[in-house]
TrEMBL record:
PROSITE patterns (UniProt xref): HTH_MARR_2
Keywords from the named record: DNA-binding
Gene3D superfamilies: Winged helix-like DNA-binding domain superfamily/Winged helix DNA-binding domain (1.10.10.10)
Domain HTH marR-type: 19-159
An MF annotation (GO) of this entry: DNA-binding transcription factor activity
Biological process terms in GO annotation: response to stress
Domain of life: Bacteria
Originating organism: Herbiconiux flava
Family annotation (SMART domains): HTH_MARR (SM00347)
Protein name: DNA-binding MarR family transcriptional regulator
Length: 175
């Protein structure tokens, strides 16, 4: 005789077998890691008084500077996908906080170029928290085989996430 007891119900929609439980544990660990990483990035952004678009803009400007290129407000606005009014506000904020300055273009005196004044290391620290020594120490304790497995796993997870269609969530009702 089979009874349908409430305490024997599968977890959420995942089912209750051991393989599924391991999968849930991994996904939950990834979820909590992402939350911690997001909080770390937010703290870094706040310490530099910069928002997400500010940091993206600064990375773009620093990369262009390294390549010997100049960037004007219009090009940066196109890259960020924002309006000319929004780029003006963003540049005013970056300039006010000492992260950039605007100067006349050497090619067209009517145009402006944006010059970053913040060292690249400061931007990397705010945007690439994963280069922090505490995090490097954890990774350095892994064997080459563990690194290979983790990189392969994360690559496959990224590819799976990229394939998710947010309009039609799929449920697996195994169990």
């Amino acid at each position: 005789m089979t009874t349908n007891r409430p305490d024997s119900a599968p977890h959420y929609w995942y089912g209750d077998d051991a393989e599924r439980d391991r999968s849930i544990a991994v996904l939950e660990a990834m979820r909590t890691f992402r939350a911690s990483e997001s909080a770390m990035r937010r703290r870094s952004q706040e310490s530099m008084n910069m928002g997400e678009n500010d940091l993206i803009a600064m990375r773009y400007l620093l990369r262009a500077t390294e390549q010997g290129k100049t960037v004007g407000p219009k090009e940066l606005a196109q890259y960020l996908g924002i309006t000319s009014a929004s780029i003006t506000v963003l540049l005013d904020r970056l300039e006010k906080n000492g992260h950039i300055h605007r100067e006349p273009s050497p090619f067209d005196r009517r145009a402006l170029i944006i010059v970053p004044t913040v060292p690249k290391d400061a931007i990397e620290a705010a945007t690439l928290g994963d280069v922090r020594p505490e995090l490097i120490d954890v990774v350095e304790r892994l064997s080459p085989e563990e690194v290979r497995i983790i990189v392969e796993f994360l690559t496959e997870m990224r590819e799976a996430v990229d394939q998710v269609d947010n309009h039609q969530p799929e449920r697996d009702d195994r169990g």
